[in-house]
Design goal:
alpha/beta, 7-stranded parallel sheet, 9 helices, globular
């Protein structure tokens, strides 16, 4: 499956350009607010009206630059699901957190917030994405073993909530994926695809 997630203003053009193709269209964010007076926000209802099927939730830049908390990300994921949008929910640690040995604790906390609002079966309709913040656009890449370790831990956390649905959740890797490393990354047992920006 291929999903192209574009900035809001380009979504109509993209939807038109990809009409009839195998690629789906998604947005890069949505508001966690219900309908109301939220000037400047882009509601999930708007995305659904356009014909968007997917939306990225909790991208590391949203977390780092715009202060989105784990609870905000969870609310956005729940909002997307309630509107029939398929969320791509991002989790990942910073370099400081990795060096402090906090990778799994951080990722589990981010995931647990989402699981408090959304079931594993619901998440299986979309995707999760592990994006180590230190490897996004930096040229640094988690080794396939490092990435697989976190992906396996995510899968185990999902299985603790719903053992039957956990294997069906797609877990993508995002972090300087390129032609030179894609094959080895995607050959790992729990890496189901890529969240690729560049």
């Amino acid at each position: 499956d291929v999903v192209v997630c574009a900035p809001f203003v380009y979504l109509p053009q993209l939807l038109d350009a990809l009409k009839g193709s195998a690629a789906a269209v998604g947005a890069q964010n949505l508001s966690d607010e219900a309908p109301g007076a939220f000037t400047g926000e882009v509601a999930g209802e708007m995305l659904a009206d356009l014909g968007c099927g997917w939306v990225i939730v909790g991208h590391s830049e949203r977390r780092a630059l715009y202060g989105e908390s784990d609870q905000t990300v969870a609310a956005k994921a729940a909002r997307a699901l309630a509107l029939g949008l398929r969320p791509i929910v991002c989790v990942g640690e910073t370099l400081a957190q990795r060096e402090a040995g906090q990778t799994l604790a951080v990722v589990h906390a981010q995931l647990d917030a989402v699981l408090a609002r959304c079931s594993v079966a619901q998440l299986a309709g979309g995707a999760l994405a592990y994006e180590p913040v230190w490897a996004i656009g930096t040229g640094k890449t988690a080794t396939p073993a490092q990435a697989q370790e976190v992906h396996a831990a995510i899968r185990q956390r999902l299985a603790a909530s719903d053992a039957a649905a956990a294997p069906t959740v797609r877990i993508l890797y995002g972090g300087s994926v390129k032609t030179a490393n894609a094959r080895e990354l995607f050959s790992q047992a729990d890496i189901d695809g890529g969240l690729i920006g560049g």
